[in-house]
Amino acid sequence: MTSSSDPRLRELVLLRRVRDRIDRDYAQPLDVEALARGAHISAGHLSREFRAVYGESPYSYLMTRRIERAMTLLRRGDLSVTDVCFAVGCSSLGTFSTRFSELVGMSPSTYRRLAANDAEGIPACVAKRIMRPIRNREAATARADLP
């Protein structure tokens, strides 16, 4: 049996394509049903398998990508919170603000004010890594990595 005929491998490739689509099209109107249709599987199956492989639901992964991009836009300081909300693909300012606060630990407007110059002089690839939001379940691991 070749690896291309392995059903589990095919499913992992499919899930990677879904994750890549989220990474690429985060600002587009995406939902689990649309992602599942694109992968030719049911929304329930996609959600279960995505969570099993990546540790979070496709929706949670999508919102994290949107919040990461929002953090970058807010640090620039030239867009309002509302403009950033819509620029990253969120259609509800309330949902955006709630999710942002959950992941980052402060409201988008507070983050915009405090982080305006945080990435100044840091290469973008480094800033992306050190300034990404830390979810509550990741906080203990991140603290354990500190010297």
Automatic annotation (TrEMBL):
Name by which UniProt lists this protein: AraC-like DNA-binding protein
One Pfam family hit: HTH_18
Alphabetically ordered keywords of this record: DNA-binding, Transcription, Transcription regulation
Domain HTH araC/xylS-type stretches: 16-114
PANTHER family (alphabetical): HTH-TYPE TRANSCRIPTIONAL ACTIVATOR RHAS-RELATED
Superkingdom of the source species: Bacteria
Record organism: Nonomuraea endophytica
Keyword Oxidoreductase annotated: no
A molecular-function term among this protein's GO annotations: sequence-specific DNA binding
Classification via Gene3D superfamilies: Homeodomain-like
Keyword Transcription regulation belongs to the record: yes
